[in-house]
Structures are given as C-alpha cells and as structure tokens.
User: Which sequence fits this backbone?
C-alpha cells in the first residue's frame, strides 16, 4: 500500500498497450499499479508522442524492449499517491514522467549527475511502462517537478523533446550570435530546438522537407530554411545560410534517417561541433578522417538530460520563451498518430489526452 494516496484512485484504467513487436497499439483497460516505497503514482493528463515511442514499438534499436509495453515518456499530470520514503513531493503536485524513469543513483555516472548514461536505468515506455495510460509510476527522485502555473498539455513535450534539444544545444557549445543547423527542424524535437535556440540568442538554419515544415520553421524563428527534398546542393545551401559562408558553428542532428549524419561534416564550420541526437535504426556516422583532423571537427552524442537540465528546460517554458506547435488528440487514437509519423507528416508534436 502507498504511504499516502488520494481517495479517488481507481483499480482499473485505460491504456494503449503494445502486445507484439511492430504493433499496433491496443486500447484497453489494465490494472492501476501501486507505487513502491521510493516511487510516486501520477494521474497522467497529457502525454506527448515522441518518435522514440515508434522505435520502441518497432523494436528498431539494439536494446531489448519490455513486452507487453505501455509506451510514452512525455507524461504530465498530478501526483495521486506516494511511497513511504517519499517526502519532497505532495499529493496534488504537478509532475512529469520523462524517458529516464529511474537510475541506480550510486554508480560513478549517477554520482556525477550523468544519470542518462547509468548502466542500469529504468526507461519509461521502454523497460518499464510509461505514460500512455491514465496512471503511471515514476521514481520520486527522477520525476519532473512541474510548477503549478504550467499548462499540462503544453508542458508535456518539454519532458523529452524540450529537455533533449536544450541539452544538445548546451553540448554544442554554440554561443549567442553563432549559427546552428537544426536537421529535422520541422519535427517534434526540431520545432522545440528552434525555440530554445532562439531563446539562447542563436541563428538557426532549419533543414527539413516540404512547404508545411518550411512554414512552421520560419514561424518558429528559423533564420533560413533548406529543403532536403528539393535542394540541389544541401551542403552549399547550408554553408551559404551561415552568414560568412564558412558553415554553421554547430549542427544538431534530429533526423530519423542516416544520410544527414553523413553530410554534416561536409558543411559544419572548422572547429565546429556536430551533435547526434536522432536515433535511426541500424545507422552509422561516417566522416572523412582527413577533414575531421585538419578542420578540427567535434562529433559527439547527446542523450536526453539530467534532473538539473530538466528543471532548466521547464523553466524556459514557464517563462513563456518556448511555444512550439502541438495538437491534442484522444489517447484512443494513438495508432493514427504513429501512422502520420511514419509518413513524416507531423509538424511539431502530437499530444494524447488520457481522458478519452
Ligand atoms: P519526428 O518524426 O517528429 O521528426 C523527425 C523529422 O526529421 C521530421 O520532420 C522529418 O521530416 C525530418 N527528416 C527526415 N529525414 C530528414 C533529412 N534527410 N533531413 C532533414 N530532416 C529530415 O521525430 P522526433 O520525435 O523529433 O524524434 C527525432 C529522433 O530523435 C528520433 O529518432 C528519436 O528516437 C530521437 N530522440 C533522441 C533523443 C536523445 O536523447 N538522443 C531523445 C528523443 C528522441
Ligand atoms: Zn522522446
Ligand atoms: Zn547509476
């Protein structure tokens, strides 16, 4: 039994369940779990749909996924129960389920707040059930603290998309006034990257495909848009967009295909940084050794963010600096969202409302 709980927590709830690799998701009633001593139970109101949820359903990655699985890791809601060891979060507080549901807290990485590389993490919607259900469990140390003045639908995508791109921009070492190329700029992570970059005083070169994405990117503050589907020479177009023609100071790779990972070292400025974030299945990064050495190019990975990054990313949002487009649809229609995502037809984020 939880140490403390709201009186109206039901025994059963609606959820979207992946029952077999490749899906589809099945909308059904399942039991509500009880939080352990160091956990909280959150009544999820809204949950953003990340491309990672689709990778999880399809089994794209070299990392085993739980089955049956409740996906979702951008879940924002209200704390309704807490375990006996939890003292610093109250019933009724706003909180969020993010990708890193929990970590060991004692390894060398956790001790240094690099918990995303903990060797034994619990991953929401991947190794433990996530937020595509009405009640989800999170380790109290890791759930995101959401201020009461935040709108729970709008804040949900900050828990993965916002946090991840904010951390990646910090990892890029780009300083105010510099140029950053955002590859996959019209998608979920991309639209937030454009907003965080703008708030951080950076120029952005948005790269994506199609008129809809171009429109969205320019509205979100992109300095230039380069269409990967129609450009005759992406490398030349991206370099041209960087002011002095020497190429962007940093590249944030958010795309879900391999090709842009190979291209980035051709247009990044000498001494520039390429930050890999997107996770296309079975993909490799290839860069010429000669150019990487003599142009002193940095190529690195960036994976979500720690608890402090989470608090900072939410604070940018709370101050009204981050407004990316989103569409709220019923939890029951999650499969339709995946179908649109597969076609690359989503600009910004879709968010499921767990009330229907
Ligand atoms: P999304 O489907 O919303 O967006 C992907 C975008 O990439 C789309 O707009 C698509 O048109 C665009 N794109 C495809 N090919 C392109 C190309 N060749 N050039 C430029 N743009 C191209 O996906 P999302 O939710 O934003 O997630 C993006 C990726 O990031 C996924 O692989 C996801 O798993 C990964 N991800 C990584 C982390 C991390 O911590 N590293 C966190 C969250 C998500
Ligand atoms: Zn995600
Ligand atoms: Zn650890």
Assistant:
């Amino acid at each position: 039994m939880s140490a403390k709980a709201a009186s109206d927590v039901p025994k059963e709830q609606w959820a979207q369940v992946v029952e077999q690799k490749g899906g589809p998701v099945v909308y059904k009633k399942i039991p509500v779990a009880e939080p352990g001593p160091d956990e909280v139970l959150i009544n999820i109101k809204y949950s953003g749909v990340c491309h990672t949820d689709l990778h999880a359903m399809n089994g794209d990655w070299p990392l085993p996924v739980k089955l049956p699985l409740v996906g979702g890791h951008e879940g924002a809601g209200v704390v309704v129960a807490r375990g006996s060891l939890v003292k610093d979060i109250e019933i009724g507080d706003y909180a969020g389920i993010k990708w890193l549901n929990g970590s060991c807290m004692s390894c060398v990485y956790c001790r240094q707040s690099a918990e995303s590389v903990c060797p034994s993490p619990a991953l929401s919607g991947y190794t433990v059930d996530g937020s595509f259900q009405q009640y989800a469990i999170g380790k109290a140390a890791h759930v995101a603290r959401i201020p009461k003045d935040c709108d729970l639908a709008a804040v949900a995508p900050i828990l993965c998309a916002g946090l991840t791109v904010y951390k990646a921009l910090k990892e890029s070492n780009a300083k105010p006034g510099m140029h950053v190329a955002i590859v996959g700029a019209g998608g979920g992570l991309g639209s937030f990257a454009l907003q965080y970059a703008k708030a951080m005083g950076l120029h952005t070169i948005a790269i994506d495909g199609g008129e809809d994405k171009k429109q969205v990117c320019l509205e979100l503050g992109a300095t230039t848009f380069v269409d990967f589907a129609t450009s005759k020479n992406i490398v030349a177009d991206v370099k041209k967009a960087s002011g002095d023609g020497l190429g962007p100071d940093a590249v944030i790779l958010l795309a879900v295909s391999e090709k842009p990972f190979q291209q980035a070292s051709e247009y990044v400025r000498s001494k520039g940084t390429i930050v890999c974030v997107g996770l296309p299945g079975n993909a490799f990064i290839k860069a010429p050794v000669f150019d990487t050495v003599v142009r002193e190019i940095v190529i690195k990975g960036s994976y979500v963010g720690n608890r402090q990054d989470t608090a900072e990313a939410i604070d940018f949002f709370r101050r009204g600096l981050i407004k990316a487009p989103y569409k709220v649809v019923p939890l029951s229609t999650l499969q339709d969202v995946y179908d649109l995502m597969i076609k690359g037809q989503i600009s910004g984020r879709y968010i499921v409302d767990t009330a229907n």
About this structure: The pocket of nicotinamide-adenine-dinucleotide (ligand 1) is lined by residues 50-52, 55, 160, 164, 183-184, 186-190, 207-209, 213, 228, 254-257, 259-260, 277-279, 302-304, 341, 344, 346 (CB under 6 Å). The radius of gyration is 20 Å. Residues 188-199 form the longest helix (12 residues).
